[in-house]
Amino acid sequence: MKSFINENFLLGNKTAERLYRKYAENQPVIDFHCHLSPAMIAEDRLFENLTLAWLEGDHYKWRAMRTNGINEKFCTGDASATDKFKKWAETVPATAGNPLYHWTHLELARYFSIFELLSPSTSEAIYEKASAMLRTKEYSTRSLIRKMKAEVICTTDDPADNLEHHINLKKTFEIPVLPTFRPDNVIKTEDPGKFSSYIQKLEQAGGIEIKNFDTLVEALDSRHKFFHETGGRLSDHGMDRFYYASATPSEINNIFRKLLKGKGISTEEAEKYKTAALTELCRMNHKRGWTQQFHVGAMRNNNERMFRQMGPDTGWDSIGVPQDALKMSKFLSGLDNTDQLAKTILYNLNPSDNEMMITMAGNFNDGSSAAKVQYGAAWWFLDQKSGMEKHLKDLASLGLLRRFVGMVTDSRSFLSYPRHEYFRRLVCNFIGEEVEKGLIPDEEELLKPLIEGISYQNAKEYFGFDNK
Asked: Which side of the chain, N or C, has fewer Cβ within a 10 Å radius?
């Protein structure tokens, strides 16, 4: 019987097979957006078992298990590692058609050379084999990264972070692990108490007293500079949507003073403050030649009861409403008007926004660099076969697929790197189908830079990590 994960997995035609083998399969990985733990990389952590490596922190799997009727103690609770894995193995057959089924078996194949299907009948043998391998030095966090040919990794870090692990890794690890500036806590005004507490934390990190909006900008700029000196070249902003409302400096300062005192602000005031704060952050990105990323469209923490019990990033999020195109346009145009729009990548979670965001990106490309403002990879709930295929089709139709910087893992798991292979196979299948339909010429001078670019080369040239 032919293995499920075989050499032609996801490659549905001969041209796709050729393109993948020739131009995509052996490319390195530039992982410019992930949530890997710098501390785990710095300590070169070994995982005691497959449960810790696979299920710890993985809200994708938790959601599937809950939907399959699995009790919470087997997801985030105090059940044993072996019992948690058994419940995951019980869930896997139910994920057929879901990207989790593909990812699960691709990861077993690529890391552990395990090609059996995971199910209750195979779970014990698979668990024992993979866990034994994970306890060896060849499967430490750094070894897992090397195994997947990662060339650069960009983690996601708060401005108040001291970046001690990144500093350590510059001296001890040959693969650059760079910080990404994620200032979301400066934008979140919904809980004024948490906001004012965070500002105190930012004060301590930067050594600058924050007493008004100007000193907030000064403190953030100081931290931004520190990230730059430590190797950071990207920012990331995780927002429900783009904001835009004009306000005077006096208005913004008054709003910020209210927040500092732990007072609530109106919806209109929040829009004004968020617009002003995000604009200043984007100006910093431009000043230091960074690339800024915007992840928008998620509706987070929908289950209030479970959010109170478990906190964020535990699997209670979903696709939000479509973006307000006018506010996005005005925000980006405001930066462009003063020539302070940095390289920008736009990611959306609602697929109905695909066409709007691709054409929006095109509004702000001025020829200063290839795809200066571009549409990012299919993200989160869209990070699966149909979502990626729609993404590729829409981008090819309305933008320049040739300049697309490609895939990110966007993951907390060190076993997620086969997602790059998954993506590359889908890209080759998409292009292969177009070639076989006669819609794209079967010419090496066209196909080679197209596939190599999307797989690796575009990201290498766009971010220019080698030059910084």
From this structure: N
pLDDT of residue 354: 97
- In our burial notation (b when 16+ CB lie closer than 10 A, e otherwise), range 161-195 reads bebebbbbbeeebeebbbbbbbbebbbebeebeeb
Q: What is the mean pLDDT of residues 199-228?
A: 97
pLDDT at 97: 94
Phi, psi of 428 (to 5 degrees): -65, -35
Where helices occur in 230-265 by DSSP H, the ranges are 249-260
Domain boundary residue among 139, 171, 186? 139
Cα–Cα distance measured from residue 431 to residue 149, given in angstroms and rounded to the nearest whole number: 24
pTM, two decimals, is 0.97
Element (H, E) at 397: helix 385-398
Residue 409 in any domain: the answer is yes
Alpha helices (H) in 68-151, listed in sequence order: 81-91, 99-112, 123-134, 141-147
**Mean pLDDT computed over 99-110:** 97
How many whole angstroms from its chain centre is CA 132?
A: 30
Q: What number of H helices and E strands is found in the chain?
A: 21, 10
Residue 186: closest CA among 83, 79, 288, 260:
260
For the cut 60, the answer to whether the pLDDT of residue 134 exceeds it is yes
What pLDDT score does 467 carry?
Answer: 62
Enclosing domain of residue 111: 48-139
Query: Is residue 343 located within the same domain as residue 202?
Result: yes
Percent of the chain with pLDDT over 70: 99
Residue 404 near residue 432 (C-beta atoms within 8 A): no
Cα-flanking dihedrals φ and ψ of residue 230, to 5°? -90, -5
Is 407 within 8 Å of 419 (Cβ atoms)? yes
Q: What is the pLDDT of residues 435-445, one digit of tens each?
A: 999 999 999 99
34 within some domain = no
Angle separating helix axes 385-398 and 354-362, nearest 10 degrees: 40
- Residue 258 identity: K
Beta strand segments in 315-369, E: 318-319, 343-348
pLDDT at 466: 77
